Amino acid sequence: LAVFGLLGLLLGLSFVSWRFSPDSPVGAGLQRGPAFAVSAAGLGTALIWIHSKVRRAVPIRWQAFGWVALLALDLALVDLSEIESRPSAPEENATVAEVAARLTPSVPERTYSPSYSLPQPAAAVSGLELVDGINPLQLRGLRDYMAAASGFGTDEYSVTQPPFPEGDPRRPWGVRPDPVLLGRLNVGYLVSAYSVEAEGWGFAGVAGGEYLYRNALARPRAWVELEAAAGSWRPVGKLAWTPNRILIEAEGPGRLVISEMSYPGWQVRLNGAEHELEQGAQPLRSISLPAGAQQVGLFF
Fold it and tell me: Of 137, 152, 201, 202, which sits with the fewest C-beta atoms within 10 Å of its C-beta?
């Protein structure tokens, strides 16, 4: 009780400090979660009193519920203090919109930036799909594939893909974009803050201060690899794509490759019947097709 009394006194003094200096760190913290702080102090005091005075009259499961509630309040207070809401920068949105206006392929294609020139929120607003960015949880297969496709190492973990050894994404780090490997990920454009010397990429001009490059070897979202001639392929007839549902009309025989990462949980139906999802095109999904027109559905 003495400990919680001291905490209550400190909370009161902090509140007085906030009233006189609302911009102080203490004041900013109180603005984010005063209700949680007061509730946690009150609930903690009540739990200690119950445990010391009337613990026999209160079932242990209700006491346990109270302690769990106290932990939840404490964690909520900590989490709220770490959240910062900021409006997107107008100049950032304008730059990305100018770049997006130049990237107008006839079919959907993805974009890759070795310099984080297309921040993810602004890119999403402009309708751009990226294969780079900030992603704390990364599939090992995709990271290793991107390392081979753009020339970065995999010895250390990085929250960004690609990693930026100098800490500044707009500083050159020796990117070596492979048009074939990135093309299999449906990457049709490369956008960089600096010029890139890369074989197989055509210079497409400058937009918003960013260098644009076109990948002539970009594959569509799905294609059929032909068995008759090695390396030959043809696009699918129709494609309807959503994150959890992909419908494809394709002509066999051959191996249908979808420019999506393999991942547990995907189910395949070929002409309405269950079919096996292969991983022969690692790390991409693939399906063996018999001869003739085929209806393929992938569902998560």
Answer: 137
For 87-144, how does the pLDDT look when each residue is reduced to its tens digit (9 = 90+)?
777 878 888 999 998 887 667 899 999 999 999 988 988 889 999 999 899 888 899 9
Q: What is the pLDDT of residue 280?
A: 65
**CA 71 – CA 94 distance, rounded (Å):** 44
CB 202 within 8 A of CB 224: no
Residue by residue, DSSP assigns 228-250 as: SSTT-EEE-SEEEEETTEEEEEE
- Show the tokens assigned to 141: 């297969």
Q: Which amino acid is at 163?
A: P
